[in-house]
Amino acid sequence: MDGSPLLAVRPASTDEVAAVVRACAAAGVPITARGAGSGLVGGPVPLGGGVVLSLDRLDHLEIDTANLCAVAGAGVVTGRLQEAAAAEGLMYPPDPASVDICTIGGNVACNSGGMSCLKYGVTADYVTGMTVVLADGSVLELGGKLRKRASGYRLMSLFIGSEGTLGIVTDVTLKLVPRPRSRSTALVGYRSIEDAAEGVRRLLVSGHFPSALELMDANALRLVAQELPSGFEPGLAALLIVEQDGSDQQQVVGQLAEIVELLAGADNRVAQSEAEREGIWRARRRFGHVLIAMRKNFFAEDVAVPISQIPEMTRRFTALADRLGITIATVGHMGDGNLHPTIVFSDEQRNLVGPAAAQIFRDALELGGSISAEHGLGALKRDYAELEHGARALDVMRGLKSMFDPRGLLNPHKVCPESPADDGFLERQPGWGAKLASGRDRSELGA
Amino acid sequence: MDGSPLLAVRPASTDEVAAVVRACAAAGVPITARGAGSGLVGGPVPLGGGVVLSLDRLDHLEIDTANLCAVAGAGVVTGRLQEAAAAEGLMYPPDPASVDICTIGGNVACNSGGMSCLKYGVTADYVTGMTVVLADGSVLELGGKLRKRASGYRLMSLFIGSEGTLGIVTDVTLKLVPRPRSRSTALVGYRSIEDAAEGVRRLLVSGHFPSALELMDANALRLVAQELPSGFEPGLAALLIVEQDGSDQQQVVGQLAEIVELLAGADNRVAQSEAEREGIWRARRRFGHVLIAMRKNFFAEDVAVPISQIPEMTRRFTALADRLGITIATVGHMGDGNLHPTIVFSDEQRNLVGPAAAQIFRDALELGGSISAEHGLGALKRDYAELEHGARALDVMRGLKSMFDPRGLLNPHKVCPESPADDGFLERQPGWGAKLASGRDRSELGA
After folding, report:
1. Minimal Cα–Cα distance from A231 to chain B, Å?
2. Which residues of B74-104 are buried (b: 16+ CB within 10 A; e: fewer)?
3. How far apart are CA B35 and CA B55, in angstroms?
4. Looking at the partner chain, which of A67, A153, A255 has a beta carbon nearest the beta carbon of B400?
5. Which helix (H) or strand (E) holds B245?
6. Are B260 and B188 in contact (CB under 8 A)?
7. Of the given ranges (A6-20, A280-294, A311-325, B235-249), which has the lowest mean pLDDT?
8. Helices H / strands E in chain A, number of each
9. What are the start-end ranges of the E strands in B280-420?
10. What ipTM is given for this predicted complex?
């Protein structure tokens, strides 16, 4: 499992994908589909060797305003879809941080999320149709431009999030929704994560439904301190970026004012202009840039916990960092319980990263969470899947894999673990050494 | 396949359900799970005989405000869940018309929808955890109080909408969302369905995201004419009931005024009070009551089409009714392309109903739609599943059924068709005669 392919192919249509898959099936050669390669868990690394199949040329895109939907090839960059929808007054809500480079096919493979999931949901909530090439090269057309269906088993749902191990999705039909014309954004600071969590709970039971609720902890804040408004309360333990959207600017501003009052922070700042709004989001984006510019290394994780467990989870991050002498800076999507703890470490601390990540996985699971909220399992987290799902559910997943891909040729060694979970999982990853040096891998941080 | 069970059991816990399933598995006896029995397609009719397993005693309910979720036994009545969530400032959005009697377990089995799906989605969009008893009596715990997950195959999605044929869901964890504090409602009338469709398109690309967009056609309107406001434009071809919700009454009223302007009907009436709002919804609910009180019989259908095809679909309803000399009155969820054409017929016209429904199915499929938007396939529509999904997808569905239930004991003869589609499908249904006389079946009309 060194992750080197025999060859790479770039088919331009579903028929060409099917022809490649048929040829591979005939020869018994593994085949690993690949989107933009912007994922953070090594999903498209061809652990079984064989053929890497890039979907980048499947980039046809249709916005169908009469049916409020888009039909997109797997290779369409998500940001391009968002812009094309916006030009027609519509919105495709899922919004991964890598939106400018990641593709819809990759988003479907990983059931990607982003910052707008609390209000708008994840990729799976928008897929109404797809074309899938199965392991024998046959083509399945599922669903269509329909917004609602209760007929038969929900096959599309199986392919979503399956990381190309059950079939290769070549195009998708996606629901679009009305595009909000206005947004308003604020910073709200807290002296403890507990205060932030209580503020969020109070807000959400009050009838307000914000479009974003982003969390940054004290360590993340320290990295972006220079981007905070001048005079903003120093020494905060947590910061929320809260956004509201809607059809009318005055109404959105009024709602945000009420939201900020309910959040009851130690300090707050409501953006008074588009420039100030941009400035607030710049502070959030700055987090990734600072990490890349540092002389230290970093390793970004992605876990989910029930939202009431966010304070406990962040306490455990702090305890873990103190114990190992590393830094863990956390950003996350507060309304989803989705945290991105980022381990910052020196070259000498490299051997601590695996044990630290393993502890983060175990803690998330102990708190009723998941080892992956929106990145997938890939090569990296696969070994921990059984701890999360249990042996019985893993058996069922293996049964599905056998049914759809009896010879195990589609993205081998992914999703269903072959090794038991242990702290050394990271050392077994191809490219773990190379990854540290890769600007590309680093630039997609902070989804 | 006469639909008579050997016996009925009412277990009170997942363990008891598992024990019943194990006993049935040992004896090779079919087992059909049953919610409230309020479905309209015969899903819980035990076509294979054997044991009927009612889930009504699994009625535990927990609202967890700290995690914005509910944990509900399969037997919890959906309306009870909605009320319990509302009491905590939260909302469970899926809203089938049978909400006062149907259960969460049944909603999950059929992936139920309702009137709020355009903005809020369907049952599947809210399930984050479930307990399932498999065909061998083993118990699978899936997901939990997590709002986001991208880890492993999405097994829960398979059980949702599977009508109890792959496993028996005994409890579910459901996402809740902030409950809007205000609603405002209007009637907008049109001289043609085309005008209504164009109004809806114009509205949705303008940035407004209404919480309901209900359609009634001319025949449906005739049945409820006395409930319309006095002086309302007579002879309309279509009526929309449009609702907006939000956190602030004044804002919601302002948004609805803009929405009504964009919808640009031939006449409109905005409710100026809660009493007027209730009156508007009474007109919609009146549709079912009038049908029940009539001396004629009726048969309610449920299809979905891409929303741009709504005018063509309704033209085909009219042509079909004219050809057969029956009446088809249609209500539907306009923003989802979900239409409920209701065939009204005399005793002498009884033999026309099967061919009429079959033609409606064929028309929906020809327009890129589905034979079931939110009711499921049940006993009634099963034969038409292959026409909708195609032979290859049906093969995959049969493979899944074999994998999860190799001996075919769970709700036999459902979802995967055994008979080819034909106009006589209705005559093969157990209780087709009895159904016409049943007040119970009639009272759940107009989902």
Report:
1. 32
2. bbbbbbbbbebbeeebbbbbbbbbbbebbbb
3. 6
4. A153
5. strand B238-246
6. yes
7. A280-294
8. 14, 18
9. 297-300, 303-304, 327-333, 338-345
10. 0.95
Strand duo B31-34 + B51-54: pairing = parallel
- The three-class DSSP label of residue A328 is strand
pLDDT tens digits along A75-102:
999 999 999 999 999 999 999 999 999 9
Residue A173's SS3 state is strand
Query: Does the beta-carbon distance from A146 to B110 stay under 8 Å?
Result: no
In Å, how far is B368's CA from the nearest CA of chain A? 7
B253 close contact with A: CB closer than 8 A: no
Looking at chain B, which residue has its C-alpha nearest residue A66?
Answer: B308
Residues 275-314, chain B: which have Cβ within 8 Å of A?
Answer: 304-308
Q: Which two three-digit tokens encode residue A229?
A: 């408004």
Burial of B28 per CB tally in 10 Å (0-12, 13-18, 19+)? exposed
Q: How many CB atoms lie within 10 A of CB B424?
A: 12
Angle in degrees, 0-180, between the axes of helices A385-404 and B385-404, rounded to the nearest 10: 120
CA atoms of A122 and B154, how far apart (whole Å): 13
What is the rounded CA–CA span in Å between residue B16 and residue B19? 5
Query: Position of tokens 């080892």?
Result: A371
Which whole-number Å values give the CA distances from A108 to A126, A131, A173, A441, in the listed order?
10, 12, 11, 20
Burial degree of B114 (CB within 10 A; 0-12, 13-18, 19+): buried
The residue of B65, B126, B130, B149 whose CB has the most chain A CBs within 10 angstroms, and thus the best one to mutate to test that interface, is B149
SS3 for A27-88, per residue? HCCCEEEECCCCCCCCCCCCCCCCEEEECCCCCCEEEEHHHCEEEEECCCEHHHHHHHHHHC
Q: What is the pLDDT of residues A385-413, one digit of tens each?
A: 999 999 999 999 999 999 999 999 999 99
